[in-house]
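Here is one such protein, fold included:

. . .
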Amino acid sequence: MALTAATTVHAQSGQEDAAESAANASRPEIIVTATKRNESLREIAGSVSAVTAEEFQELNAQDLSDYITRVPGVVFNNYQPGVSEVVIRGVASTTYHEANQATTGYYLNEVPLIEPGFPLVIPDVDTFDLERVEVLRGPQGTLFGSSSLGGAINYVARQADTTRLEAGFEGILSSTRRAGEASYGIKGMVNVPIVRDRLAVRLVALERYDAGYLDNVGTGVDGSNDLRVRGLRGSLAWTPTDTTTVSILSMYQEYDLDDQTYVVFNDDPETFERNTNVPEYQKTDFQLHSLRLEQDLGFATLSALGSYVRKESDLAFDDSIFVGIDPRTGTPQLSGSTGKSETKYGELRLTSIDGGAFEWLVGANYTKLDAEGTGFAYIEGIGDYIDANPGEFGGQPSSEIAPDDFIQRTVDSNEVQEIALFGEASYTFADVLKLTAGGRVFEYRSSPRLQYLPNADLIPPFDYQPGEKKESGFIPKVSLTYTPNDTLMVYALYSEGFRIGGTNVYAAASGAPLNFDSDSTANYEIGLRITGAQERVTIDLTAYHMDWKNIQVRLFTPVDFDAYTTNGGGADIDGIEAAINVRPVDFINLSTSVSYNDARLSQMLPDSFAPGGGYAAGTRLPGAAELTVANQIEFDFSDAPMRPRIAFAHRYLSEAPVAFGNTLEKGDYHIIDLNASAEVAQGLELGVFVKNLTDTYGVLNAPFGFAGSVTRPRTIGASLRFNFD
């Protein structure tokens, strides 16, 4: 099924002829909320794709890595679970984890999942019982706010349905080459109408275990990077009247990674080995609670949304990969961090009733973030060494500069508040020409604090409290759409995105700047949408130019390779995206997407720690592959007994630098997947799959040049799904 396939099919009149009915069945319509109103995917003046629930099943997709790179213009920096980042149109300064806000915004049913600051967790929502995932390419600052420089992702979870009783189950068992254990997934859903057509509840529970495939020769553990994912999701829907809907959505999901996912390349170009003295664990979790009111006022719909998101993170690293074993104690230097954040969000908006020549939307939102974290470096036995050699440490006892063998400690906190007004209005002339203009007025206030406590390295401690920082601005958007008939749509779009500034936390003592400013993108885009052959052929063509100003870039200090963010330079990004879907007959579907992206610095990017003082204009942005390709051929015999289906999927990523100043490249590999299924009983589907059929080895990221993450080896598995309705 194509990436733009539909999830909502409008009822067909019994008077429609057979040809039209067949055509509509082959190309059903998808309704998305990418513009904060229900709108047909192919009528939006912008680049929006939707991956549907049907496609998740066809791909046996569990998380972002299984489906997101099939969307045009998208690259996935697949690093540690819970912090891996989606990069849209090459807008990124690293293939690792941005040291500030991500360049892509993430939402669940329009609730922001990314806080206005460094994200402790980037939720990778499990695909089970999702209705679809919307991918908005290009800056989305007007309607979605900060952290949408390159685009946005909106997970759409199914809400409680008051009209019917439903239940679903999914079980998956698989084996990965090099993994010593089997991987599995167990997921279930139940939807119960308590008062038919008025009140219902929906519950989802899941557990997934992905067996590790990397061997840690230092700890002696094969398959050390085992991952466990657990989650709960609950929804309640109440419609007290025909014009009022109240819904509650709550979710909890946790990631428990036994050991980090990077390998050390050394002289082996295709290694699966790590070498650390201790397991580098990582534990992240997030919870979300939201309340939503939809009220039909006759002339417009009133939407009120409130949410609370809490995140926690705990991770550890073995710094001996950088500094070796400490000669004073004979033990490794370890580091780590813990953190938590709480984000409260409220939004109120009015949306005009669809169908008129004049349509409008106006709204306001408020965001409040409270975040705090600690960082540390630890050397076992250093306290005894300090007390035995006081002259090396200015006579200071270990209890003051290395309590419990912690040689460095940082404490940081931040409070951010945002208030914004936003809106859009459009008018359609003569039923064929639609002009849309909108904007966002915003103000951010932040109060950061960074404490560097007394330490064994004798770096002067400090308590940095710059006071309240304030930032405000206006983000415009304008588009023009020409739709002469049902088969053709042409549009032109200008949009902007932005990201707020912040404070460097872990690298300040290494001489990095304490503060960095906001950055922004401006996007100029034209698009062509063609639908032909009774909707059996769709062609989407898009060309764009983006201007990235005052880039927030992730760089590293020479001391322990601490990461920090600084501003400097700019970038020009030019690209073309093409997506074609063809259904020559009812049981065959062909789809392809090809993206060309040229993302390079437009001026010198200063880096005081780099040879030559920085990176010249023309340097390609990290991870910005020039060519991405995704193809799929599907045979779907839905009218035959047992409804068999088989699909072959292929994707290609061209090479790209992993970081500024690094000669190692990611990409330049092909991945082929095979998926097949059949309905063995009413509502019971059995599937088999092979991911990475050719067992291709590829580098996904490598922030340090000598260490990075690699593709998962060939994985063979089976799935069993049951749906009761």
Summary: Residues 1-26 have pLDDT under 50 and may be disordered. The two ends are 23 Å apart (CA to CA). The CA atoms of residues 239 and 473 lie 39 Å apart. The first helix runs from residue 18 to 26.
